[in-house]
Specification:
The complex is a heterotrimer of chains A (505), B (330) and C (89). With 505 residues, chain A is mainly α. Chain A is built from 21 helices and 4 strands. Chain A has one domain: Ribonucleotide Reductase, subunit A. In chain A, helix 4 packs antiparallel against helix 10 and helix 14 runs parallel beside helix 16. Chain A is globular. With 330 residues, chain B is an all-alpha fold. Chain B has 14 helices and no strands. In chain B, helix 6 packs antiparallel against helix 10 and helix 7 crosses helix 8. The longest helix of chain B has 31 residues. The N and C termini of chain B lie far apart (65 Å). The termini of chain C are close together. In chain C, helix 1 crosses helix 2. The chains are: A mainly alpha (505), B mainly alpha (330), C alpha+beta (89). Chains A and B meet through helix 1, helix 4, helix 5, helix 6 and helix 7 of A and helix 2, helix 3, helix 6, helix 7 and helix 8 of B.
């Protein structure tokens, strides 16, 4: 046989099919049910896994090659950043609050996504789907590690980073992100995919990474820009996986539509609440700002999300139920969060501050309908209290939403003067919520959400309300990690070191 | 910005993250330590899995192995994503060069037909076994406890996928797409492959992550790799004139040498933890290595014929000696 | 019509890629932001290997895009020669 003459020239798609999908087989010695035990209980019907469309056809040789190139670039910049005191290139050390929140709340989420994708990379019966999920699993541990490595050098010089692993499990605000990822991981494989692959990656991570990382570049933080954009290059694959997966579910069986729609409604709202923290990072924590949260929402929420849901309309999908409430909240949320963070800053392992006159001028230009009317007066009041030597501190117990775990600081849709508060009674217990969206989610799965670990009640039941003991327990160093940036160690160090670095005195 | 020599007075405030100082003392931490220790959520997990409410989200209790500290299962290679990826990218360059060398010189076409047939008959169905290794290591990573133990399993899973893909390319280079189809048919129905396929499928229903680690990474791979890539490809087939094939499987041979050090380290630490662990490991090791040896005999026969029993017996002895050194005599 | 987009890191490697995208997509709008270039196009955007190769002066594998890609939007269809982003409406 003349091998050369008979050998077929394979196209990319066929080659990928052979190198990936053809590796699997119909089991004969064990049942599919025994091998893939979790794939049916959510009610999603799949008739033909071969109909799955592979988003990017990466084989391992290409994966290793391109990822290694990304890694080389990343660590070269991180090393240079550490060697050259790159932290002194920041516009201002206030900015670090955003990174502290990121490391305590978001990086652990990357790790959770790593574990979750490993699980579904095993539990889905289709080889193409499995491989795409496995690549995401290994990418996500990359993200957790590159973030820790990028922030390691900041930890050596600044407060608030040192106890991120303790904060992840114990401090109050991280449970917003923790409960989000725990919620997804405790769901079945298809819901996990909608939660992380679709809602979080496709609809929301652009909001997290793109404008925020551009902001990092603008503020001289090359370490973060590098991990951000480097991670985001993987996200392009992940987002596409999320979108392919949702189309696959919808194409496989019409009965899947209501289940998928329910998950989109749920996970859009869960994700929107988690990303609420990003609004504050963008509007308040970047000393030099690229765009407001409102502007980012217009591009990545309204325009891009809108295009996505118009595309999915052919399957009968409508935009998420909470979309209009979200739209109404956009002009308020960053201000409401920052006011909350400032009043509870005794209990945060990052600093907050009263925005300067320049900051407030920017905020009123970006939020002409809301800032001067609702929020400037509150900042003015807080500023007056501080000037009088009686700074505004709230040691009271924040009422946390049973679902998203944020303090109930948001206002009613349609009435920004009234705090939104919902409650429901389940099996004789009363549960509190920040919004209709969160209450609906609870009522759909009460047995899940009554298990939620609420960090503030824990302070009282386990530590008897002893704030100092609580600080020890969460590894928060009072007077260093927490409180107002103005007068903090971080501020003093940054100003001193920058002075040393830029002058000869 | 001009940074002058006074940077010496810009003093670090601390050496490392708190959790690493607690583990390793007050000194700068390595990137492996930063990227591996205590990065899995440990407390205050919010909800029970709906897929198995008996379990916790991260549950050390789903295996019979008991560790006071799961992070003791350190990877001696200290692989985190970056070092792992850079290592594999370098090896991939070599493998690519090897494939190009064999292809450009038409070395595959120069193999004697019966030799080429023997190679295809043995190696092509193994791409499915490698896929099984991918499935099982993905499982261990997903459900195992503690990052030092689980992250190398994700790397191992991706390596197994890479190996399955190298074997597929080898099949296409020496044969054609038809060779892959024939290999799959043999995997599904050929009598020589059924014990091995049964072994792999039986592993896929083991849901104790550590038992699966023993069954796949220690027992099966510990016999399969030295037998197939060492005894058969490097020794037997090269002697018969198929050294070009050894170039195409160089990655597998090197990979096994590298990864067995990690497997041994994990076994050694787990066995040294307690008599209970040692006994559990002995039981698993005896059970799975017996089955693996029996499953491999007909596969080895495909090339070695009547010499298969002796070859397998020799490798069982070597395997037992290796595992004995980890403190698990069986 | 809905907008599709692709965003790339702003560096020397992406300059010829961005040029190629502009050549193949006259309707595209190039936005230069800190450290990033975002290219928007109404409905559809095509990245062609051959055009990139002409700009680069060397062979180019479209999967190399992965290295400098930041994000994208739209349904993805990729083969050896093109990467297409589109919305169905």
């Amino acid at each position: 046989m003349d091998m050369k003459a008979t050998k077929k020239k394979l196209g990319m798609k066929e080659r990928y099919r052979i190198l990936t999908r053809d590796l699997g087989w119909e089991p004969g010695y064990q049942s599919k049910k025994a091998i893939f035990p979790y794939v049916e209980y959510e009610g999603i019907k799949v008739h033909d896994w071969d109909k799955w469309e592979d988003p990017f056809r990466l084989t391992m040789d290409a994966y290793w090659k391109y990822q290694a190139e990304k890694e080389r670039k990343f660590y070269a910049i991180i090393d240079a950043h550490a060697q050259n005191n790159g932290h002194l290139n920041l516009t201002d050390a206030r900015y670090l609050s955003a990174l502290k929140i990121f490391l305590q709340a978001i990086s652990p989420g990357e790790y959770a996504a790593h574990k979750g994708f490993a699980r579904i990379g095993r539990e889905f019966p289709g080889v193409g789907t499995q491989v795409a999920c496995q690549m995401q699993a290994i990418d996500e541990i990359r993200h957790a590690q590159t973030q820790i490595h990028a922030m390691s050098n900041y930890n050596r010089y600044y407060d608030g980073f040192h106890a991120f692993a303790d904060a992840r499990d114990r401090i109050w605000y991280t449970s917003v992100a923790r409960s989000f990822f725990d919620d997804a991981m405790s769901a079945g494989p298809f819901e996990f995919m909608i939660a992380i692959g679709f809602s979080f990656e496709y609809v929301l991570t652009n909001l997290l990474f793109v404008p925020f990382m551009s902001g990092a570049a603008y503020n001289g933080d090359m370490a973060t820009v590098t991990f951000g954009f480097s991670a985001q290059s993987d996200e392009a694959r992940h987002m596409t996986l999320g979108l392919e997966c949702i189309k696959f579910m919808l194409e496989q069986d019409p009965d899947n539509l209501p289940i998928v729609q329910g998950w989109i409604d749920k996970w859009f709202w869960r994700g929107f609440r988690v990303l609420g923290l990003v609004s504050t990072m963008m509007d308040y924590m970047l000393p030099k700002r690229v765009m407001s949260w409102r502007e980012a929402w217009e591009i990545y929420g309204v325009e891009n999300g809108g295009a996505l849901f118009r595309d999915l309309a052919r399957y009968g999908i409508r935009p998420p139920k909470g979309w209009d409430d979200a739209e109404q909240a956009i002009d308020h949320m960053s201000h409401q969060f920052m006011l909350g963070l400032y009043q509870w800053s005794f209990g945060t392992a990052f600093h907050s501050w009263i925005p300067s006159d320049d900051d407030m001028a920017w905020l009123s230009a970006k939020y002409p309908d809301t800032f001067d009317r609702y929020y400037r007066p509150r900042w003015a009041h807080i500023k007056k209290l501080k000037a009088a030597g009686t700074p505004f501190k709230n040691y009271g117990l924040a009422r946390l939403c049973q679902c998203c775990q944020l303090p109930c600081v948001f206002t009613e849709p349609g009435d920004p003067t009234l705090t939104c508060h919902r409650e429901t009674v389940y099996k004789g217990e009363k549960y509190q919520f920040c919004s209709d969206g969160c209450k609906d989610i609870f009522e759909h799965e009460p047995e899940k959400y009554i298990q939620a670990w609420l960090p503030m009640p824990a302070l009282f039941s386990e530590l008897g309300g002893d704030v100092a003991a609580w600080m020890d327990w969460v590894s928060l160093r009072d007077g260093a990690d927490n409180g107002d940036y103005d007068g903090s160690r971080d501020q003093r160090h940054f100003d001193e070191w920058r002075g040393l670095a830029t002058s000869n005195l | 910005m001009q940074i002058d020599l006074r940077t010496v007075s810009i003093q670090p405030q601390r050496n490392a993250f708190d959790h690493l100082v607690r583990r390793f003392g007050d000194k700068p931490a390595s990137r492996y330590q930063e990227g591996s220790y205590d990065i899995q959520a440990a407390e205050n997990l919010h909800y029970r899995p709906t897929w198995d409410p008996e379990q916790q989200l991260y549950d050390a209790g789903i295996t019979r192995i008991v560790m006071r500290d799961w992070y003791a299962l350190k990877d001696p290679r200290q692989f985190y994503y970056s070092t792992y990826t850079l290592t594999r990218a370098r090896q991939q360059d070599t493998t690519e060069a090897n494939f190009a060398f064999v292809e450009s010189r038409g070395l595959a076409d120069r193999l004697a037909p019966e030799l080429r047939e023997a190679v295809l008959r043995l190696l092509v169905p193994l791409r499915h076994a490698a896929w099984g290794a991918n499935q099982n290591n993905t499982f261990i990573c997903g459900y195992g406890f503690g990052t030092t133990f689980t992250q190398p399993c994700m790397y191992h899973a991706m390596d197994s996928l890479g190996i399955a893909q190298y074997l597929s390319r080898l099949g296409m280079l020496l044969g054609d797409v038809d060779a892959l189809d024939a290999g799959k048919a043999a995997w599904l129905d050929g009598p020589a492959w059924q014990p091995l396929r049964r072994y792999v499928e039986d592993c896929m229903v083991v849901r104790d992550p550590f038992e699966l680690f023993v069954a796949q990474n220690a027992a099966l791979d510990g016999l399969l790799y030295p037998l197939v890539y060492g005894r058969i490809v490097d020794d037997e087939l090269s002697a018969r004139g198929a050294s070009a094939v050894a170039m195409l499987t160089q990655f597998m041979a090197e990979w096994f040498d590298e990864t067995r050090k990690w497997v041994d380290a994990v076994l050694k630490t787990a066995a040294a933890e307690s008599d209970h662990n040692r006994e559990v490991l002995q039981g698993w090791m005896a059970h799975w290595s017996d089955r693996a040896a029996a499953a491999l005999v007909p596969v080895v026969e495909l090339v070695l014929g009547a010499d298969a029993d002796e070859a397998v017996a020799a490798h069982i002895a070597a395997f037992k000696a290796r595992i004995h050194k980890t403190g698990i005599p069986f | 019509m809905s907008t599709v987009f692709i965003a790339l890191q702003a560096n020397e490697e992406t300059r010829p890629i961005i040029d190629a995208i502009e050549i193949d997509n006259p309707q595209a709008v190039v936005n230069r932001q800190p450290a990033m270039v975002k290219i928007d196009a109404p409905g559809r955007l095509v990245v062609r290997r051959e055009t990139i190769e002409a700009q680069l002066g060397r062979a180019y594998d479209l999967q190399e895009l992965q290295i400098n890609l930041i994000t994208l939007s739209g349904n993805v269809d990729e083969d050896e020669d093109t990467l297409t982003l589109s919305w169905n409406e």
